[in-house]
Amino acid sequence: MEGEPKIIGSKNKIEKGLILKVSKMKPVIKPTKPHRHEGYHELIYLSKGAGQHTVGDLAYEVQPPMGFYLNLGQVHCWDFSKIPEGYVILFREEALSSYPRALAHLYSLQETFKLPEGDSSLLRLAEVFYLDFKNNASQDLLSAHLNTLIYKTIQLPLQQAAIHPNVLDEFVRFKKLVQENYLHMKTAEAYANAMHISIRKLNQLCQTATGGNAIEMIRERMLIESKNLLSHTGYPVAEIAYQLNFSDASNFIKFFKSQTTLTPTEYRAKL
């Protein structure tokens, strides 16, 4: 039996008027409820702590020194077993308006990354960033800190994507369009038209950047939201199908099973 309907909570930790905020991890181990951070990206650098960090339907072991990256609207929650220490950087995309290449590189970041053992340079950069933020440094300086931190992070092992800058820019443009329109634009042709390129060119971009094609990227975004709603709400399957703009529940079930081999109800029962 499906539970009482509930919704995925949203948190806005950036005060009105700010486009960037740097803070220390709270020294608590109380589990957090699954929630989204709407409208901004999040970079987390941990020097201490233990437990789990769940992003979507993936649970990551917290094993510092390490970091996490959360894209716009991703659902996540913490369950620490040891007091965490580290830094959290929240930022809207306007914070990188002078650094478009750094913004593009965010799409090549993994959700989790290891920091080098015995090399605390990234954590020291985050600390200086934090101190300047607390001392009301100019937005130009804070944005420069963020740019440096992103570039240092993408240079970590397994993070650097060997993609030509022009290809990366076009791929980021496509990913942003998908993020903003996946509920009502569900074909590669629609995105190709919006970008004024051919479907072949769009698929080439995706193949170079990820090894997949455009329709796989579109379906992946829809699948992420499907799993979020099944995992973190009590909505009936028919209501989820409606929220995701499927014509009916049966089409949603067919889509979900084609991507996971499970029906939505089977997936929910396994959680």
Automatic annotation (TrEMBL):
Residue span(s) of domain HTH araC/xylS-type: 172-270
Superkingdom classification of source: Bacteria
Cited InterPro entries: AraC-bd, Homeodomain-like_sf, HTH_AraC, RmlC-like_jellyroll, RmlC_Cupin_sf
The entry's keywords: DNA-binding, Transcription, Transcription regulation
Classification via PANTHER family: ARAC-FAMILY TRANSCRIPTIONAL REGULATOR, TRANSCRIPTIONAL REGULATORY PROTEIN
Protein name, as recorded: Helix-turn-helix transcriptional regulator
Organism: Cyclobacterium jeungdonense
